[in-house]
Amino acid sequence: MKAGSLIAGVALLAGHAAAKQPNILFILTDDMDSHMEAMEHMPLLQKHLINEGTVFSRHYCTVALCCPSRVNIFTGRAAHNTNVTDVWAPYGGYPKVVREGINDDYLPHWLQAAGYNTYYAGKMWNQHSVENYNAPHVGGFNESDFLLDPFTYEYWNATMTRNGAPPVRYEGQYSPDLTADKAYDFLREALRHKDRPWFVAHAPIAPHGNVHFPYDESDETKQSKPGYAERHAHLFKDYKIPRGESFNPAEQGGVSWIANLPRLNDTVIAYNDEFQRSRLRALQSVDESTAALLQLLKDAGELDNTYIFYTTDNGYHISQHRMHPGKECGFETDVHIPMIVRGPGVPRGHVSEAVTSHTDIASTIMELAGRPLENTDGVPMPLSLEAEANARMEHVTIEYWGLAIPEGELGWYGDANMTDDYGSSAHAAINNTYKGLRVIGDTYSLYYAVWCTNETELYNLMEDPFEVRNLLDANGGHAAQANAFRIAGRSLDQVVSRLNALLVVLKTCARETCREPWRALHPQGDVATLEDSLAPHFDAFYAGQPNIYFTKCEIGYIAESEGPMYVNRFGGGIHQGYVPTNAKSAPENGDEVAGYDRKALKYLGPQHRISIWT
């Protein structure tokens, strides 16, 4: 998409070129799904945003875990470029955000430089805690009220820091209502400054599960269903998770640790249904607060000069593919997520089929602010029909490093490489590092992934929308589907050779290579889509490309374990991928984490705490 096309199209449809920069209201939930009817059970969201704005039906997060996903949102850079890939140190969390320089160079700072006042209420970063809340303060906001670990996911025991002041505990108050009240205050404050545009974010923890993290060595992690306000306790008594083909299937695809999961029994399924009911109830507070925020805008006469973005950090699975509640996988359940935009010139009641991702959000907001970004990995989302007609994106990079951790009270994954001394309240699948690729065109919809075990997956979502038939699983009994598979008349092998090369490009892409990855392979610019690349005269070229492989299952981004970093260019030469310097080897701190062991899911004690934010 050409720079400026979003603004031009929106201004044209709005009937004026805005003299004042537009306001931005950003609502970010935690773990909200697209496939279990979450949006359908939020009537105020339907009324005020879906009916009055545009739903991006092909919107994706690029890493299905909250901290790296939020860094992706607020920087516009892929996780392999931010090198924030986990929720805990040494590979993620707030100390890692600070160490990577992101605290001084991300969206709120850019907005302030563009003349905006900025405000934030709710959850920002994992491992932003009562101990490091001021070391340093989170940068970029005029005013803020952040939830703090280890209390972030306790619905009735929130602790927050307002504008960097010492933490305040709000025991007994319901967290999503509490953060909403903070957001209302910030919005009223922003509205008082008539001469300045503003950015206000509300980030409640709903519908994330309730998690009690240990406060000392005698304590342990306890996970349970999301908390909900008493006024919503009567809702959704008869709700059940949709029983699609991937729901606790008798036979399923997936790589070995997923394919070998035992089927869930009736007790677990009943628990999971109630877990999702609790998630829907928790979202009702978000539904109410979203409507209340828009009412404040309407009362102030600013609704027509405000863009409202509603999304979540990542999706969620419950019972699909026989999995306990959780995220961290590349299935549609985990990465295909809600994205709604309402604002001046944005089509009302429209469903956009443009392929977009969280990598595009920062570029979108900054172009609306009149300061287009050049050094991000994304492009502005098409907020007008004109921009949508000219959008050319067909791909989304999906990536993940580390563990798959089951949530709730009944979760347990026993990986073949897992030993008993790793577990307390839950066991995690440890071979859950992979590189994936979603490619969506007029006649194809594919998910391709290579795992650190060097297992591969390909799902044809046109025929298999629930992703249960892995066309690359020789033992999966899908030979007939694999043999019949065609795109543009080309066979499975020819398609996979193109997907492999495209994924090699994207797993180390940066900036324009992320936006136009086919140019790394075809610098002449004559190939812009998967279908273009399938021309028979390219067969020998793709047959000579390096294959993706891993040499080790790492729990963070160690680029040297992730196989080839270059592709051959058509016509001669190579394209070398971009790898951050500190992604080439393990961090100095090795496997130590700040007070918490991701493998054991247990408290380590302060003697293991590492001060990497100073």
From TrEMBL:
Keyword Aminoacyl-tRNA synthetase appears in the UniProt entry: no
Residues annotated as domain Sulfatase N-terminal: 22-370
Entry keyword set: Glycoprotein, Hydrolase, Signal
Entry EC no(s): 3.1.6.1
Signal peptide: 1-19
InterPro entries: Alkaline_phosphatase_core_sf, Arylsulfatase, Sulfatase_CS, Sulfatase_N
Catalytic activity: an aryl sulfate + H2O = a phenol + sulfate + H(+)
Family (UniProt): Belongs to the sulfatase family.
UniProt protein name: Arylsulfatase
